[in-house]
Amino acid sequence: MSSAPTEYQDLLIELGTEELPPKSLQSLSEAFAGEVLRQIDDAGLAHGALTVFAAPRRLAFRIEALQLAQPDRETERRGPAVAAAFDTDGQPTKAAQGFASSVGLRVDQLQTLDTDKGAWLVARVTEQGKQAQALLPEFLAQSVQRLPIPKRMRWGARTEQFVRPVHWLVALLGEDVLPLSLLGLEAGRQTHGHRFHAPAPLVLNTPKEYEQRLESEGFVIADFARRRAMVNEQATAAGTQAGGTAVIDDDLLNEVTALVEWPVALMGRFDVDFLRVPQEALITAMQEHQKYFPVVDDNGKLMNAFITISNIDSTDKTAVISGNEKVIRPRLADAAFFYDNDCRKTLAQHAEPLRQVVFQQQLGTTFEKCERVARLAGIIADKIGGDVALATQAGHLCKADLTSEMVGEFDTMQGVMGYYLARHEGLPEELAQALHEQYLPRFAGDTLPATRTGQAVALADKLDTLVGIFGIGQKPTGDKDPYALRRATLGILRIIIGNELPLDIARLVKEAAAGLGTRITDDAAGQALDFINGRYRAMYQELGIDTQVIRAVQAVAPTQPLDFDRRVRAVAAFRERPEAAALAAANKRVANILAKLEKAPGDEIDGALLDGPAEHALTDAVVNAYAQSEPLVEQGDYVAILALLADLREPVDAFFDQVMVMADDPAVRDNRLALLSFLRDLFLQVADISELGG
Fold first, then answer.
1. Going by C-beta distance under 8 Å and a sequence separation of 6 or more, which residues neighbour residue 634?
2. pLDDT tens per residue, range 615-631
3. What's the rounded Cα separation, in Å, for the pair 688 and 587?
4. Residue 512 class from Cβ within 10 Å (0-12 exposed, 13-18 middle, 19+ buried)?
5. Same domain membership, residue 432 and residue 391
6. Could you give the 3-state DSSP secondary structure of residue 334?
7. Where are the alpha helices (DSSP H) in 174-289?
């Protein structure tokens, strides 16, 4: 079928495969289409919108109104210098003749280009644009080759390799099939719908009809986003039908969407008795093992219902539901068996085998780590108003659930199982909560430990690991951070700041190092402290705080993270004031003057040596600012201090305009330097404002 010539046509490419890996379906489809589009753009072919399709058995995309040929281009190639192109008789030399031949012209068709370095022969030729159908085969081959596939496979007797066996290839440009082959397949217009609902081939006429005909005749929803919305909507409705709310995790939603072409949500049930098992284990079994959506009640408690997304619209849905109920029962029975076994032991009994579990070869066993965490957690609890005995006990038991059968089967239950075992044993609720909270925050934006005991144990655990790993010389390098120390450090800072804990990070590192004894040197402990202080920049940059603001606070080296946070926020607010730039510049000037001195300025200002209104005014302003800022420093009210110091702009500007600091009289000069030193120290009570001037 041939159409009348036109300048633009829609392009459709579809690669039909065996079921693709669900977790990488989206990235594969976007990479496949994106790489082809990039090459089309590089080739200068105009086009309209790109639509990407992704389903379990296909990678496809459509580009609307693709230009059928590159526009012709005028190109200019420079040849030899005119002086070398012709001999003394004006005849073309071999250099000129060779250049003309290389561009397909005669010497008399070449032109001359005059530059500041002399005259040159040039050839101006029209380069004819290539046809899109001639370019696309290579574009597609390159795209397939560059797909993010960690391991490719062969199938049958073929030599081609891909992530899964490939069975058909659609390539339409308008109504015409593109003459190309890919992965051993010749392009055609024949696609395939649902494996069971529509097994017969489906012949496409144009790219525009692709998704509509696949849906109406092939029982395939090719658009990933639309299919995802359908799964979400159906699962939500099924959860309501069950009398609760479906728990729809984004990652699981994406994975399920990548597993089905024609989603049909079905609601199943399981034995109520299983609800005595920690719901986190049941949810893990449903989500990770079976790809089911759990259902919870209005209080967030798990119900004995689940939602499964079938890829078939069965005429006997009851049989499909029954089959899924039979499949999930052994999984839940396993969880119940492990839980019952674990409940037969106390947490202290669970902790005993940790004596044989190595935490890190040079840092000893996990049991020894718990001993260190217990000691440090008690120290921290004392400083933050917590229960020292409870924090110490929680530290001893914090890793006990690692030996439980439940954690052995469901690694996501680490910490969670400790919480349930502590409650089953009748231990204090705050201790049980702390066993779960010790791992918080797990990621950026995660919740923080809420109890004082949980905060103490979480900090102690992270600090012990951080300082210990530095002690054995395995600090993070480049992108290598096997012990996730960067994440642990941000967790430490977030816990302290988010819970407004009055903790000194330098003292905490010292205490953690003391627990490690001879395993760590003072130098390694210092490196660990520097590492923590260095993470402030990443943390505040993520919050949108400018680097100069962070550096201004780092320059005065506060040792309490909560204090650091208050200073950063105060300086960020100060920077928005109209006086900030001038005062930053003045601080920079003062810092430069003082840095050049061989000895520190005096610590007194002699009023008898003051000369002129500007010098008197600045002295009075500095003295008054010291008096007013003293109680504010005690309160840590850095916003108020900087608001107070903003009023110094006028006397500071007047001083530098009217006063010669480096006066000839040594006494006067020293007096003025002392005044400037006092001025700078005023600002250094908060931060080094001179850093804001860069």
1. none
2. 899 889 989 998 999 99
3. 8
4. buried
5. yes
6. helix
7. 210-218, 224-241, 250-257, 279-284
Residues with Cβ within 8 Å of 126's Cβ and at least 6 positions away in sequence, in order, are: 72, 73, 74, 75
Q: Structural domain tally of the chain?
A: 5
- Please give the residue range of the domain that contains residue 310: 224-342
Residue 512 covered by a domain: yes
Cα(54)–Cα(61) distance, integer angstroms: 8
- pLDDT tens for 426-472 read 999 999 999 999 999 998 889 999 999 999 999 999 999 999 999 99
Residues 515 and 620 in one domain: no
Whether residue 166 is contained in a domain is answered as yes
CA distance 391 to 393: 5
Last residue of a domain, one of 501, 526, 544: 544
Q: In b/e form, how buried is each residue of 38-65, taking b as 16+ CB within 10 angstroms?
A: ebbeebebebeeebbbbbbbbbbbbbee
Distance of CA 38 to the CA centre of its chain: 25
Alpha helix (H) residue ranges in 90-174: 94-102, 132-145
CA–centroid distance for 333 within its chain? 37
How many whole angstroms separate alpha carbon 619 and alpha carbon 683? 15
* 65 and 196 within one domain: yes
Q: How far apart are CA 616 and CA 207, in angstroms?
A: 83
Query: Looking at the predicted structure, is the pLDDT value of residue 3 above 80?
Result: no
CATH of the domain at 400: 1.10.3210
Q: Strands, DSSP E only, in 517-562?
A: none
* Whether residue 206 is found in the same domain as residue 104: no
Q: Which residues pair with 111 in a beta bridge?
A: 122
What is the number of other CB atoms lying within 10 angstroms of the CB of residue 240?
Answer: 13
Question: CA of 233: how far to CAs of 253, 288, 346, 423, 527, in Å?
Answer: 11, 21, 44, 37, 52
In this structure, are 527 and 428 located in the same domain?
yes
Q: What is the overall mean pLDDT for the chain?
A: 92
What pLDDT, on the 0 to 100 scale, is given for residue 694?
54
Q: Return the closest-CA partner of residue 676 out of 656, 646, 647, 694.
A: 656
> Comparing C-alpha atoms, which of 568, 566, 570, 564 is closest to residue 532?
564
Q: Helix and strand tally (H, E) in the chain?
A: 26, 18
Looking at the fold, whether 33 and 160 belong to one and the same domain comes out as yes
Q: Is residue 513 part of a domain?
A: yes
CATH of the domain at 159: 3.30.70
Give me the long-range contacts of 606-614 (CB less than 8 A, separation at least 24). Answer: 606/667, 606/671, 609/667, 609/668, 609/671, 610/671, 611/659, 611/668, 612/658, 612/659, 613/658, 614/651, 614/654, 614/655, 614/657, 614/658, 614/659
Nearest-5° angle of CA 489, CA 494, CA 500? Answer: 135
569: tokens are 């926020």
Q: Which of 218, 237, 263 is the last residue of a domain?
A: 218
How far is CA 143 from its chain centroid? 26
| 362, 484: one domain | yes
Mean pLDDT computed over 14-19: 96
DSSP one-letter string for 394-416 = HHHHTTGGGGSHHHHH-GGGTTH
Rounded to 5 degrees, φ, ψ at 550 are -65, -45
pLDDT one-digit tens code per residue, 538-595: 999 999 999 999 999 999 999 999 999 999 999 999 888 888 888 888 888 888 888 8
- Give buried/exposed letters for 283-295 (b at 16+ CB in 10 A, else e): bbbbbeebebbbb
Same domain membership, residue 410 and residue 470: yes
Please report, for the domain that includes residue 638, its CATH number. 1.10.730
In this predicted model, what pLDDT tens digit does every residue of 342-388 receive, in sequence order? 999 999 999 999 999 999 999 999 999 999 999 999 999 999 999 99
* Banded pLDDT at 395 (limits 50, 70, 90): very high
In sequence order, the β-bridge partners of residue 640 are: none
Q: Answer yes or no: is 25 within a domain.
A: yes
